[in-house]
Amino acid sequence: MFTLRIRKVVHHSDRVATLYFSSPLNSYPGQFIMLNVFDMEEIPLSLSSSSSVTVKAVGETTRKLVKFSGGELVGVRGPFGRPFTPSKRALIVAGGIGIAPMLYLYDYLRTCDAKIRVIYGGKTAEDMIFPDRFDDSVILTEDGSLGEKGTVTDALAGEDFERYERIYVCGPEGMIDAVVKILDDGDSLHKAEISLERYMKCGIGVCGSCVIENGLRVCADGPVFSGRDLK
């Protein structure tokens, strides 16, 4: 483990913040770190850039993190995990806080001159982070408070999956299950790369706390899986 200082904090809402580290990490989009707020539980967090994590307050440690203001010290292990595979024609599908690793992916693909379309949804406007960051995008909320009224699965109904080399997915498990079914029905599941989140203790494939139904470990075999892995 090594120590980093929080250089800057951007608060998106009372429950969501992006924490920027004092120096970048040698990492790739889709990877995660184990972050230690000293005297509290170590937790896994996806990188939202090479030098940041975007955090939603859902537990004791994350509630403390979103209250940071800059200057704090944190312990870091990693980065760990299997990253996304770059592509030149990409569709990004994200829900809620699942946009966090996709921000890193989006910025990385842009440096490769990729053509990128983003479908991003949430329950309400408060759940949406960086909705104005994307050039070619469909933004949806279930209550219609931001963008179109609907869900990401509604938007997928009008997509021609043949246009894309890769389809990247991250979000709530219910959304992921629905997207996997749509892609499978459209004979496009082989194009999918899906980022999962699980509770982890070790982050390196030893403890078994993040094993999913098919026996794969989110920390070591993922967190990015092929669509066929999750069918």
From TrEMBL:
The keyword Cell cycle is annotated on this UniProt entry: no
Record keyword Electron transport present: yes
Single GO biological process annotation from the record: 'de novo' UMP biosynthetic process
Binding site for [2Fe-2S] cluster: C202, C207, C210, C219
Record text on cofactor binding: Binds 1 [2Fe-2S] cluster per subunit. Binds 1 FAD per subunit.
InterPro entries: Cyt_c3_hydrogenase_gsu, Dihydroorotate_DH_ele_sf, Dihydroorotate_DH_Fe-S-bd, Dihydroorotate_DHASE_ETsu, FNR_nucleotide-bd, OxRdtase_FAD/NAD-bd, PyrK_electron_transfer, Riboflavin_synthase-like_b-brl
Database matches in SUPFAM superfamilies: Ferredoxin reductase-like, C-terminal NADP-linked domain, Riboflavin synthase domain-like
Co-factor requirement: [2Fe-2S] cluster; FAD
Location of the Dihydroorotate dehydrogenase electron transfer subunit iron-sulphur cluster binding domain: 197-230
Domain Oxidoreductase FAD/NAD(P)-binding: 93-180
Keyword annotations of the record: 2Fe-2S, Electron transport, FAD, Flavoprotein, Iron, Iron-sulfur, Metal-binding, Pyrimidine biosynthesis, Transport
Pathway(s) of this molecule: Pyrimidine metabolism; UMP biosynthesis via de novo pathway; orotate from (S)-dihydroorotate (NAD(+) route): step 1/1
Pfam families linked to this entry: DHODB_Fe-S_bind, NAD_binding_1
Homology family: Belongs to the PyrK family.
Subunit (UniProt): Heterotetramer of 2 PyrK and 2 PyrD type B subunits.
Name of this protein: Probable dihydroorotate dehydrogenase B (NAD(+)), electron transfer subunit
Lineage of the organism: Archaea, Methanobacteriati, Methanobacteriota, Archaeoglobi, Archaeoglobales
